[in-house]
Design brief:
Layout lengths: L2 E5 L7 H5 L9 E2 L2 E4 L3 E3 L4 E2 L6 H6 L5 E2 L7 E3 L3 H11 L12 E2 L3 E4 L7 E2 L8 E3 H9 L5 E5 L1 E4 L13 E6 L2 E4 L26 E2 L8 E4 L2 E8 H10 L5 E5 L1 E2 L9
Parallel strand pairs: 3-7, 5-8, 9-13, 15-17, 16-20
Antiparallel strand pairs: 1-18, 1-19, 2-6, 2-8, 3-4, 10-11, 11-14, 12-14, 15-16, 17-18
The structure holds zinc ion (ZN).
């Protein structure tokens, strides 16, 4: 088995912005960042894509979730965190333990500054992957597993001149498949701070433990949805179709998969 990481191409300087023409994240909502006397301020949240994040839910969570575009980042003291997070999870009907400090909540949004020919875009974060409809069509046709396609709410930047009437259609790749890294401290959910329950980061050199892989074509490692990994089946499809603006980085792995899904 081989694994690959889907990543933003290595650009120099301004090329990144010209290939990924985003102004900012738009109306995305975030869980509060944590403040802790040992750790300082931190956030390392996952992406929770609730496409039904309605205005009444946002209003009832006023002061508990924030929208960076409106410039009001909320910090929560570690002593208040359990209560705040419980209210967020209850209001949004999420399982306890879903929301982490800085989790992104709600549909993917972004302000676009130009028309792009690229099939893959990395808007405002190298860990967020948007693709064109043709990519979704090809992936769906191939029946790839471990990924959801979330419709994005892209808007043209106000400053943009001569913009087409309708913004382009993009879909976010939301990866749901899973495997663990070799020797990952996250597997035991070890914390390095007893006050705020901050966990250890993963090992520096990423190695996939194939014995723990759930058989998905797309997967994340250690329940951390910052990086998207794929099998060689996905890599081949991307290369065969000539999809642009994405790097496919080989990642080492050990062990034999126990759980291969037959095609
Ligand atoms: Zn702490």
């Amino acid at each position: 088995m081989k694994a690959y990481r889907l990543k933003i191409p290595s650009y120099t300087g301004a090329v990144r912005d010209s290939e990924n023409p985003f102004d900012d994240e738009g109306e995305t909502w975030f869980a509060p960042s944590m403040t802790c006397p040992n750790c300082g301020i931190w956030a390392g949240g996952n992406t929770i894509r609730l496409v039904d994040l309605t205005t009444d839910k946002i209003v009832s969570l006023k002061g508990k979730i924030h929208n960076c575009q409106k410039g009001k980042v909320i910090f929560t003291d570690y002593r208040d965190w359990p209560e705040v997070v419980a209210e967020i999870e209850h209001t949004l009907s999420l399982k306890p333990g879903t929301v982490r400090p800085g989790s992104m909540i709600g549909p993917p949004t972004g302000i676009i500054t130009k028309v792009s020919d690229n099939d893959f875009l990395f808007p405002w974060s190298p860990f967020v992957i948007w693709v064109k409809k043709r990519v979704v069509d090809v992936f769906k046709e191939a029946g790839l597993s471990g990924v959801h396609y979330i419709p994005c709410q892209a808007e043209w930047a106000k400053k943009m001149k001569n913009k087409p009437k309708t913004p382009p259609e993009y879909w976010e790749l939301h990866v749901t498949g899973h495997a663990w890294q070799v020797d990952s401290p996250n597997r035991k959910e070890e914390v390095i701070c007893e006050l705020c329950k901050r966990r250890k980061g993963g090992p520096k050199d990423i190695i996939v433990d194939w014995t723990t892989w759930d058989g998905s074509d797309f997967f994340i490692l250690d329940k951390i949805d910052r990086m998207a990994f794929v099998t060689d089946k996905v890599r081949d499809i991307i290369l065969e179709n000539g999809f642009t603006n994405v790097d496919i980085l080989p990642i080492p792995g050990v062990g034999e998969p126990k759980n291969i899904k037959e095609p």
